[in-house]
Specification:
The chain has eleven helices and two strands; from the N terminus they run αααββαααααααα. By secondary structure, it is mainly alpha-helical.
């Protein structure tokens, strides 16, 4: 019998969506670590559901890039290679540079306050030492910039990266001894957007994302990788 990973029982509605969200949280938080097998029977037992919605949720997460399927072995949590990190961050830089410049053009007192509140929330999560919530709120700060940009296709591109970005942001959380530092790294981005200078915005986006890119690459080299599906 597989050990539990801390999943709650579910209500009857939208079982597949609920299972997918909870599995995503377990993956992002490291309770289902890279390379580990998704034991469908164990997950179903923890959640109090049949295996069918677990299997459908696993297929959904496979399409989103969080799980990989191994024939006759089942589903395994994806392990990032350095090439994956490079591709994710290369696309992320392109999307967020453009989004931040557009957001500066569209900035209103209300949207500026929303970004400021989001940084405050990051500090609150640091006070609570809630790494999982901090990952989510970090992601929401960057998504909010894409929302303010007002370009639906830019937002769609960002959303397509959502699951992978959450996993990567979770890795970034391991880089800081002081969780408040994660919140503080977002403040120069907001200041540049408020100033409305495209060159300054791009410079701060490049620094923020580029630093994370380099550090996650270093971290990934230190994480042992096992072949997917290995016993």
């Amino acid at each position: 019998m597989s050990p539990p990973v801390g999943l709650p029982a579910l209500a009857e509605t939208d079982l597949v969506g609920q299972v997918a969200r909870l599995l995503t949280q377990a993956i992002v938080q490291g309770r289902l670590p890279p390379g580990s097998k998704l034991v469908e029977a164990g997950v179903a037992r923890e959640l109090g559901v049949s295996r069918a919605p677990v299997r459908e949720a696993a297929r959904l997460l496979e399409r989103q890039g969080l799980l990989v399927a191994n024939p006759r072995r089942g589903f395994f949590v994806r392990q990032f290679a350095l090439d994956d990190i490079d591709e994710i961050y290369d696309l992320r830089l392109c999307v967020e540079r453009h989004a931040a410049v557009l957001a500066a053009r569209n900035l209103t007192p209300e949207t500026r306050d929303a970004l400021r509140r989001q940084i405050d929330v990051l500090h609150e999560m640091a006070d609570l030492d809630d790494q999982a919530r901090q990952v989510e709120e970090d992601y929401r700060f960057h998504r909010l910039i894409c929302e303010i940009a007002g370009n639906t296709r830019v937002l769609r591109l960002f959303d397509d990266l959502a699951s992978e970005l959450r996993m990567v942001i979770g890795l970034i959380g391991r880089l800081y001894d002081d969780p408040h530092e994660i919140a503080r790294t977002h403040e120069p981005i907001l200041a540049a957007i408020e100033a409305g200078d495209p060159e300054r915005i791009i410079a701060h986006i490049d620094h923020h994302i580029g630093h994370a890119w380099r550090e996650v690459g270093k971290l990934l080299r230190d994480i042992p990788h096992s072949p997917v599906g290995a016993k």
